[in-house]
């Protein structure tokens, strides 16, 4: 399958629609939109066989079942691609083996190959002038074009809901990505906002759109800290984590894998 993606024509913002693309992955060829039609998706971009990116893949692998329980599919993407003589990309497959060695369970989500940086350009991760540097990455393995790593959370409407951009020296906080998923799902389910450092079970914030009279009906027993800051302890059945049930390991693998 030929890789294709539409280059971004304007900066990506939260709420923007993510670009579609066709690409090869460690689990076969995909059309991106077809893989995320009915799920929330978290996408990470990094480089093969670099130490920080490897630790990130390990931690995402360790938490992959938790993401699956929340209906979140995981994809990794890299511009480092070492072609094998008979097709495929050897570097990704060997990298997965390294990750599996240190993870409590094998990596079950696909790594997307971005041979010439086209996909990264579509997601505004690279400039057009970086094309030659992307090719150089394969030779030197030092990430000449990539000076950072990025995490996207994309919803079932194919809209960006979160963008984390980390400098190359700083690893992604994988647990924070999972926490944000819980925040987004709880906020949507209960029509609330989540305060700083919120975790399931903590007080939520009542949106300003509700008058005090409306808030009393919808959020009985809420507390007013300031006229603009009203907090409420959600019933457990309305928080994201408390409605999640464990799913079998086989179901995790089926959910995270590329759909044929």
Automatic annotation (TrEMBL):
| GO cellular component terms listed in the entry, alphabetical order | cytosol; mitochondrion
Q: Name one GO molecular function term.
A: peroxiredoxin activity
Thioredoxin domain location? 12-186
Transmembrane parts of this sequence: none
Asked if the record carries the keyword Transferase, the reply is: no
Assigned keywords, A-Z: Antioxidant, Oxidoreductase, Peroxidase, Redox-active center
One GO biological process term is: cellular response to oxidative stress
The family database entries (Pfam families) matched by this protein are listed as: 1-cysPrx_C (PF10417), AhpC-TSA (PF00578)
The keyword Oxidoreductase is annotated on this UniProt entry = yes
In which family does this protein belong, per the annotation?
A: Belongs to the peroxiredoxin family.
The entry's function note states: Thiol-specific peroxidase that catalyzes the reduction of hydrogen peroxide and organic hydroperoxides to water and alcohols, respectively.
**What is this protein's name?**
Thioredoxin domain-containing protein
């Amino acid at each position: 399958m030929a890789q294709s993606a539409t280059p971004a024509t304007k900066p990506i913002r939260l709420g923007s629609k993510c670009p579609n693309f066709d690409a090869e992955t460690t689990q076969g060829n995909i059309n991106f939109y077809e893989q995320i039609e009915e799920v929330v998706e978290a996408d990470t971009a990094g480089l093969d066989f670099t130490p920080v990116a490897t630790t990130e893949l390990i931690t995402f692998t360790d938490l992959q079942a938790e993401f699956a329980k929340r209906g979140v599919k995981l994809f990794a993407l890299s511009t480092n691609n070492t072609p094998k003589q008979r097709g495929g990309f050897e570097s990704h497959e060997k990298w997965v083996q390294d990750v599996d060695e240190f993870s409590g369970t094998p990596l079950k989500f696909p790594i997307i190959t971005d041979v010439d940086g086209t996909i990264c350009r579509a997601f505004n991760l690279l400039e057009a002038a970086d094309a030659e540097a992307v090719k150089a990455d394969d030779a030197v393995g030092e990430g000449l074009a990539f000076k950072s790593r990025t995490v996207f959370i994309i919803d079932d409407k194919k809209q960006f809901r979160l963008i984390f951009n980390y400098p190359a020296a700083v690893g992604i906080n994988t647990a924070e990505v999972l926490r944000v998923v819980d925040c987004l799902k709880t906020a949507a389910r209960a029509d609330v906002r989540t305060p700083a450092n919120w975790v399931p079970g903590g007080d939520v914030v009542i949106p300003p759109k509700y008058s005090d009279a409306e808030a009393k009906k919808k959020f009985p027993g809420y507390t007013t800290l300031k006229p603009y800051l009203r907090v409420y302890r959600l019933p457990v059945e309305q928080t994201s984590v408390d409605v999640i049930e464990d799913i079998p390991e086989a179901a995790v693998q089926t959910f995270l894998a590329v759909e044929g």
